[in-house]
């Protein structure tokens, strides 16, 4: 090839015209349109290729009955061409797709099963690299089990697994070569090839191999779907939101402590600690996100050591509990409810103090305030309340 690898135009052909009979689900959509983790299998598959910077165009081969399902699944992905209709076998579907791609003149084509939604960026990288170097290459995953012949319900000869491989997709080819190979197979009346590497071998091409990925499985049976759903759900980031609420009554005094700041007032707040409703609500929000009890269970009001305590230490402790679980605190937000004292003049100082205690930047700390329109105990100036939320991320 005269062009350098990075100049080669790469197209992707996704075959999605099968009926998925082995996956069951009779009466429902074919397996490539079934949802895992809230989105169609085909959507996951197309997304992987659409996101790859080397992929210029994606053509999907669909069943004649599935146009509406396809439109729903493909959404607004970039790079997708008008789909074409497949044939009775996978081989027929690939051939139809290759013929339709001819007008777009790709240099390389990656042929992929819609039913393999877990294809990684690394495998796509390797497929492009291998086709650039060898002209034709397929991904192969190692066979890890002992493999044997099974005949008439009996174990037969053990095969040498070191000489075997499990062939996956995307299989990558120089476009002109694989198109010629498929046309040759058609001319020769061969319709029994289960992958494109075999079609290319029939044409006499040498097929390279590159490492596949054990995670790049094909969804074939109903059990594959249960496993896929579990895998996608558990690979979602464990982002959690917790809420907290606190109330303290006014008592005689000349200041209150709010969000870690001493605010002059004609009353104080009654409490075992410094009665900082804002920090208590945030602390509870973090415990809530961790599902780790509440401020009372960690710092019992009956324990004399917390008498008059600075509530900053409660909040710092909750933040440490997040870190101890390998997580991070992403954001806190608190709303203080009261007729007086006014929060506005102290908001910036409160934000800064909460940020300092939590190890956050100020833009990740919300401090808001409201009256309750003179309604309820807050409206009657009997005390202050605060409601808070906290967002954390834990490792999966
Ligand atoms: N006539 C066909 C048959 C298969 N495929 C596609 O080829 C891929 C791999 O095939 P397979 O897993 O065997 O899918 P099905 O043929 O749909 O499954 P089954 O054999 O269980 O019916 C799938 O993405 C499938 O949609 C296709 O485009 N056209
Ligand atoms: C192409 C393929 O994915 C390689 O493993 C596979 O052969 C296609 O599925 P089928 O069940 O053989 O049709």
From TrEMBL:
Site (Transition state stabilizer): 22, 31, 272, 371
Family annotation (InterPro entries): IspD, IspD/F, IspD/TarI, ISPD_synthase_CS, MECDP_synthase, MECDP_synthase_CS, MECDP_synthase_sf, Nucleotide-diphossugar_trans
Entry annotated with the keyword Transferase: yes
Cofactor: a divalent metal cation
Residue numbers binding 4-CDP-2-C-methyl-D-erythritol 2-phosphate: 246-248, 272-273, 294-296, 370-373, 377, 380
Binding site for a divalent metal cation: 246, 248, 280
Keyword Lyase annotated: yes
Swiss-Prot/TrEMBL catalytic activity: 2-C-methyl-D-erythritol 4-phosphate + CTP + H(+) = 4-CDP-2-C-methyl-D-erythritol + diphosphate; 4-CDP-2-C-methyl-D-erythritol 2-phosphate = 2-C-methyl-D-erythritol 2,4-cyclic diphosphate + CMP
Positions of the 2-C-methyl-D-erythritol 2,4-cyclodiphosphate synthase domain: 240-392
Alphabetized SUPFAM superfamilies for the sequence: IpsF-like (SSF69765), Nucleotide-diphospho-sugar transferases (SSF53448)
Role of this protein: Bifunctional enzyme that catalyzes the formation of 4-diphosphocytidyl-2-C-methyl-D-erythritol from CTP and 2-C-methyl-D-erythritol 4-phosphate (MEP) (IspD), and catalyzes the conversion of 4-diphosphocytidyl-2-C-methyl-D-erythritol 2-phosphate (CDP-ME2P) to 2-C-methyl-D-erythritol 2,4-cyclodiphosphate (ME-CPP) with a corresponding release of cytidine 5-monophosphate (CMP) (IspF).
PANTHER family: 2-C-METHYL-D-ERYTHRITOL 2,4-CYCLODIPHOSPHATE SYNTHASE, CHLOROPLASTIC
NCBIfam families named among the record's database cross-references: ispD, ispF, PRK09382.1
Family note: Belongs to the IspD/TarI cytidylyltransferase family. IspD subfamily. In the N-terminal section; belongs to the IspD/TarI cytidylyltransferase family. IspD subfamily.
Name under which the protein is recorded: Bifunctional enzyme IspD/IspF
Organism: Terrihabitans rhizophilus
Taxonomic lineage from the root: Bacteria, Pseudomonadati, Pseudomonadota, Alphaproteobacteria, Hyphomicrobiales
Gene giving rise to this polypeptide: ispDF
